[in-house]
Specification:
Function (chain B): Carrier of the growing fatty acid chain in fatty acid biosynthesis.
Oligomer: heterodimer
Strand content of chain A: under 5%
Structural class of chain A: mainly alpha
Order of helices and strands of chain A: HHH
Family (chain B): Belongs to the acyl carrier protein (ACP) family.
Largest sheet of chain B: 2 strands, antiparallel
Subcellular location (chain B): Mitochondrion
InterPro entries (chain B): ACP, ACP-like_sf, PP-bd_ACP, Ppantetheine_attach_site
Number of strands of chain A: 0
Distance between the termini of chain B: 30 Å
Shape of chain B: globular
Protein name (chain B): Acyl carrier protein
């Protein structure tokens, strides 16, 4: 295997690990009811990632990432927190108040008929 | 390359707001930005201050080293997982939801400030 393809593969794996860590950290916050419960959980999660920091074998890393992603997928929160404006959030697609000076004419076009 | 060129060009183009509309005597600009939940926008200095505060309060960071143009990993001695945590802290500070791939690209303070300042929902 050439050096370039090895490095490319390592870079891809590093990105997968970062994204997995990010998703897992967000999910930890979903599972924790309070902030003070979240911090130890986040530390434990970090420990699990740090434990494999020095693994060098690229195939082993690949298998570990796949296993980690599968485990994360299995324990995903069923009702995660969504930022209110984001799709699925409580404020998604809510209409803003019209700007000052705009008047809504409810019987537009029927003023004389009724 | 193309996206860098595009952002450079876009940064220098200003579209003049020529049309104005008069309703009940008050002048309103006809061009209204697409904003659904809030109309006011953060100014750049406030964004920079709050981002700096977040970084300084991160436990592994030495607050005296933090300046507005540091790189998380090169200058502050953090690793990639630390920068993931910092980006998550920034998301919570500004009530944002950054997609994973974009959050992964944010690795320095100028980039974070730029991203948050240009985000329409940052508050």
């Amino acid at each position: 295997m050439s050096v370039a393809s090895y490095l490319a593969r390592r870079a891809a794996q590093k990105e997968r690990v970062r994204i997995l860590y990010r998703r897992a950290l967000k999910d930890t916050l979903n599972w924790a009811v309070h902030r003070h419960l979240f911090y130890p959980d986040a530390d434990a999660l970090r420990e699990r990632f740090e434990a494999n920091r020095n693994v060098e074998d690229i195939e082993l890393i690949e298998r570990m990432i796949t296993a980690g992603e599968a485990a994360h997928d299995k324990w995903r929160h069923p009702d995660p927190y969504i930022v209110p404006w984001a799709p699925g959030g409580s404020k998604f697609c809510r209409n803003p108040t019209p700007p000052a000076g705009i008047e809504i004419v409810y019987n537009y076009g029927r003023e004389d008929n009724d | 390359m193309a996206s860098a060129l595009k952002s450079t060009v876009l940064r220098h183009i200003r579209v003049p707001i020529s049309q104005t509309l008069t309703v009940n005597g008050s002048r309103l600009t006809a061009v209204r930005l697409m904003s659904s939940s809030h109309d006011d926008h953060l100014d750049k200095k406030e964004v920079a201050d709050r981002v700096l505060d977040v970084i300084k309060s991160y436990p592994k960071v030495d607050p005296s080293k933090v300046t507005p143009d540091v790189h998380f990993q090169k200058d502050l001695g953090l690793d990639s997982l630390d920068s993931v945590e910092i980006v998550m802290a920034l998301e919570e500070e500004f009530k944002l939801d950054i997609p994973d791939k974009e959050a992964d690209k944010i690795d320095s303070l100028p980039l974070a400030i730029e991203y948050i300042y240009n985000h329409p929902m940052a508050s």
